[in-house]
UniProtKB/TrEMBL annotation:
PROSITE patterns xref list: ABC_TRANSPORTER_1, ABC_TRANSPORTER_2
UniProt entry tagged with the keyword Repeat: yes
The name this protein goes by in its record: ABC transporter ATP-binding protein YjjK
Gene, per the UniProt record: yjjK
One MF term in the entry's GO annotations: ATP hydrolysis activity
Repeat among keywords: yes
InterPro entries reported for this sequence: AAA+_ATPase, ABC_transporter-like_ATP-bd, ABC_transporter-like_CS, ABCF, P-loop_NTPase
Pfam families: ABC_tran
Keywords in alphabetical order: ATP-binding, Nucleotide-binding, Repeat
Domain ABC transporter: 5-212
Domain of life: Bacteria
Gene3D superfamilies cross-referenced by the UniProt entry: P-loop containing nucleotide triphosphate hydrolases
Length: 503
């Protein structure tokens, strides 16, 4: 089987979308691992699905035909059951046992998929994908939901794969450890509009990102130089045309100049080099050079403008001394018998996969709802964003957005843009990616001015720019925060109290 998968001149537009996602895009994937990188919603998953035949391009070719290859796709959402789960459950060959051992798959996991934690489900998804011995393997955000030990197991499993591997991830550590190439999807500004380009760089993320920055600086310098040259030639053309017109006027007057008019005689002297040159001739001399410079400028592109920044959340902390409390039940080490959340507490919940982090969140929410039902005072607004979202969640979020007043919608979309997302695409009917949906849910929640935010794996699906913008936003948030995550950098940036779930 071919060890190279080539996408040539691919164009693709989602049904009902106002403009194509890709236009004349090309990319090549060879044996080994290549990372597909880019902002949320730029089309990373779509590109991977085109590469493995799950989607068909509107034009262009994928060679060899994915239908003639063994292809496995591991989705980013853990609520999608692997299609070969039953086969995997019944397969106890030596190769499959090795995969089970490498990823620490429990013998009964295939029979209780719906009860697994996010990290456990992700490991089982990857195991099922590897068990098919594919020619092409696509892993979409494989380290979402997983702890450090599981990330290491996934890294080792990826290194053992010898086919064509495509990984979509924002995990710098994983990419640097496994990938020899990076396909960067970039929004480029050319010919007065933004387009998506695919550029391949050698090395892992750290090396590829430096190459991309160097190229962007070179592109910007080339555009600035060409613009200056074009402006210089246009200025010279105007000046010489003006001199030619003055000469024509003098010639038409017979060059009769009063001998005492010293200024006019000097002007005529300066015009003598242009004698015999008409306005049309002067213009023609520069038209070709200006046209060439204009054409060069049209074929140059630069990185499209970014809008990621920080959302200002105008929220006052709750006046209550305690927002809620639940029994510890020995779930959290080094904490008292009752776990309490204060109005300004910034709590992180960490621990291995399967240690009960999400279950603890559910207990907190149940306690909040129970407390609010027993109170006679005004309800305390809070926002909960779960780690998994369904198609129904997406539809509900879009319905909420369209139901807002014009003023509220403007506030939400302005905040959405600050998280490195495209409001125009969202309003035009584009289906938000999982990362874009998380941003939208946060921005919609701002309308209620929540005094407590609970987020389960908030950095899952977010690109690196968006993760930084989210950290900046939550750092300036004045209310209480509870965040479940395996991302140590993020937790250190936004929280000050650590609850560690026992293994």
């Amino acid at each position: 089987m071919s060890q190279i998968l080539t996408l040539t001149d691919i164009s693709y537009c989602y049904p009902g979308a106002p403009e194509p996602l890709f236009e004349h895009l090309s990319a090549t994937f060879a044996a080994g691992w290549a990372a597909v990188l880019g902002d949320n919603g730029i089309g990373k998953t779509t590109l991977a699905k085109l590469a493995c035949g799950m989607l068909s391009p509107d034009s262009g070719t994928v060679s060899p035909n994915p239908c003639k290859m063994a292809v496995a796709y591991c989705p980013q959402r853990t609520d999608e059951t692997p299609t070969n789960l039953d086969d995997f459950a019944a397969d106890w060959t030596g190769e499959t046992i090795a995969i089970r051992d490498a990823l620490n798959i429990g013998d009964d996991w295939a029979y209780r998929y719906e009860t697994l934690s996010g990290g456990e489900a992700k490991r089982l998804q990857i195991a099922c994908a590897l068990a098919g011995d594919p020619d092409v393997l696509v892993l979409d955000e494989p380290t979402n939901h997983v702890d450090g030990r599981t990330r290491q197991a996934i890294t080792q499993a990826m290194r053992r794969f010898d086919g064509i591997g495509i990984v979509i991830s924002h995990d710098v550590e994983l990419i640097d450890a496994t990938c020899s190439r990076c396909v960067m999807l970039e929004r480029r500004h050319a010919r007065g509009r933004n387009i998506t380009a695919a550029n391949t760089y050698q090395g892992g993320y750290t090396q590829a990102a430096q190459q991309m920055r160097d190229n962007q600086r070179a592109d910007t310098a080339a555009i600035q130089s060409t613009r200056k040259e074009l402006q210089r030639m246009q200025r010279i053309k105007r000046e010489r045309a003006q001199r030619a017109r003055e000469l024509d006027m003098r010639k038409n007057q017979g060059m009769r100049i009063d001998i005492k008019d010293i200024d006019a005689r000097k002007a005529l002297k300066n015009l003598k080099p242009a004698i015999g040159t008409t306005v049309a001739q002067t213009s023609a001399q520069f038209d070709g050079r200006i046209a060439a410079a204009t054409d060069r400028l049209a074929h140059l592109s630069e990185a499209a403008k970014r809008y990621d920044g920080t959302i200002w959340m105008n929220v006052m902390p709750s006046s209550r001394r305690e927002l809620t409390r639940i029994p510890n039940d020995h779930a959290i080490a080094d904490q008292p018998d009752m776990l309490s959340i204060g109005p300004r507490d910034r709590i992180s919940i960490s621990g291995p996969n399967g240690s009960g982090k999400t279950a603890l969140i559910r207990r907190l929410i149940e306690a909040l709802e129970r407390d609010e039902a027993q109170r006679h005072s005004e309800r305390m607004p809070y926002l909960y964003i779960p780690q998994n979202s369904s198609d129904m969640d997406t539809a509900n979020a879009m319905n909420r957005l369209h139901a807002l007043t014009d003023e509220q919608r403007a506030i939400v979309l302005s905040a959405y843009a600050q998280l490195n997302a495209d409001p125009d695409r969202l309003l035009a009917g584009g289906n938000p990616s999982p990362g874009e949906l998380r941003k939208l849910l946060l921005c919609l929640g701002m309308i209620e001015q929540p005094q407590l935010i609970i987020m389960d794996e908030p950095t899952n699906h977010l690109d690196l720019h968006s993760k930084q913008a989210l950290a900046n936003t939550l750092s300036s948030y004045a209310g209480a925060l509870v965040a479940v995550s395996h991302d140590e950098w993020f937790l250190n940036a936004v929280t000050s109290i650590r609850w560690r779930c026992a293994s």
